[in-house]
Amino acid sequence: MFDMMKMMGKMKEVQARMKEAQDSLVNVRAQGEAGAGMVKATVNGKKQLVALDIDPSLLKGDDKIIVQDLIVAAVNKASDEAEILAKEELRKSTEGLLPNIPGLDLGGLMG
């Protein structure tokens, strides 16, 4: 028999763990590179750009458009990787808290 009170208690625990996990995403780091590593972007688990490294040789000419394109590419790669890492972090934080209920999809809670 399904115990609704026990399930509600678990949901509060899940909510607390999800909040804690989401708060910790600021510490998750992912890096993306473009131009054979000449531009490197680092993004946190909240998809915020936290670091940008540009090879000095790119800044010497009139290659503004190339540099801009490489920055966009590196940031997008880092952002994609950060999303994967953030979902994994949230999944680990709530693992084992809820029973496997067919049709219950909490994927939307994980970003």
Automatic annotation (TrEMBL):
Question: What GO molecular function annotation could you give as one example from this UniProt entry?
Answer: DNA binding
GO CC terms on record? bacterial nucleoid; cytosol
Location relative to the cell: Cytoplasm, Nucleoid
Q: Which InterPro entries match?
A: YbaB-like_sf, YbaB/EbfC
Q: State the source organism's domain of life.
A: Bacteria
**Family per similarity comment:** Belongs to the YbaB/EbfC family.
Quaternary assembly: Homodimer.
Chain's role: Binds to DNA and alters its conformation. May be involved in regulation of gene expression, nucleoid organization and DNA protection.
Q: What is this protein called?
A: Nucleoid-associated protein SAMN05660236_1219
